[in-house]
Write a structure and sequence with these properties.
The chain is α/β, with parallel strands linked by helices and about 220 residues long. The chain folds into two domains: about 1-115, Response regulator (Rossmann fold); about 125-220, Arc Repressor Mutant, subunit A (Orthogonal Bundle), CATH 1.10.10. The protein has helices spanning about 10-20, 35-45, 60-65, 85-90, 105-115, 150-160, 170-175, 185-200, and strands at about 1-5, 25-30, 45-50, 55, 55-60, 75-80, 95-100, 125, 130-135, 140, 145, 165-170, 210, 215-220. The strands form four sheets. Strands 2-1-3-6-7 form a five-stranded parallel sheet, sandwiched between helices. Strands 8-9-10-11 form a four-stranded antiparallel sheet, covered by helices on one side. The chain is globular, with a radius of gyration of 18 Å. The chain starts with a strand and ends with a strand.
Length: about 220
């Protein structure tokens, strides 16, 4: 797997590249938006780790440009932890957002998660004890069948197809309800609460269906 690291902080980029190579990835680095797009066109990376602020442009602009011709997952890394910046990056097409500084183990886990998303599609998805059979539209937790409404199943399908990935409210709403409902986040709060009661051992302390305040939700193997 080839990963393109885009960051103008030389020491950070070198350290990150060394850790990625140690984890078995082939790594190329770039320090500017122009270099990043040229490297992506030349080398067709399997994933991109991209700083939000670059000397000659924004990581959001790089993401938009990539999305015009590439499906490679993009993880934005930035010292900016502002929610609006995070949501803007995700809406531009990024698959995840990690705030610096971060444990390298967390970044590697998120990288594995986004790479699983672009693997050949499966009809049965498993995230921790949750098993989603897309063809049968059946869900089990620890082997026990759970009855979901069509909208509950739709939300779970979207999250299970991108395990570990932060899915924005808008992305889930548009996928399940359609484009006209992109801003109706009140729908989600109700359905996610219902899903947690059916999927979680303790709905008040979710382990699998996690909230990212102000941004969206992610489905994980367990916390």
């Amino acid at each position: 797997m080839k990963v393109l690291v885009v960051d103008d902080e030389v020491q950070f980029a070198r350290a990150l590249a060394a850790n990625l190579r140690g984890a078995g990835y082939d790594v190329e680095t770039a320090a500017t938006a122009e270099q990043a797009l040229a490297a992506a066109k030349r080398g067709a990376p399997d994933a991109v780790i991209l700083d939000l602020r670059l000397p000659d442009g924004s990581g959001r602009d790089v993401t938009r440009a990539l999305r015009s011709w590439s499906e490679a997952p993009v993880i934005v890394v930035s010292a900016v932890g502002d929610e609006e910046e995070q949501i803007a990056a995700l809406d531009a097409g990024a698959d995840d957002y990690v705030t610096k500084p971060f444990p390298i183990g967390e970044l590697l886990a998120r990288l594995r998660a986004v790479l699983r998303r672009v693997a050949p599609s499966e009809t049965v998805l498993e995230v921790g004890p949750i098993r989603v059979d897309l063809d049968a539209r059946a869900v089990t937790v620890d082997g026990e069948l759970v009855h979901l409404t069509p909208n509950e199943f739709g939300i779970l399908r979207v999250l299970a197809q991108s395990p570990g990935k932060l899915m924005t409210h808008r992305a889930i709403l548009r996928e399940v309800w359609g484009p006209a409902y992109g801003d109706e986040s009140n729908y989600l709060h109700v359905y996610v609460s219902q899903l947690r009661r059916k999927l979680e051992p303790d709905a008040a302390r979710p382990r699998y269906l996690l909230t990212e305040a102000g941004a969206g939700y992610r489905l994980v193997e367990g916390v």
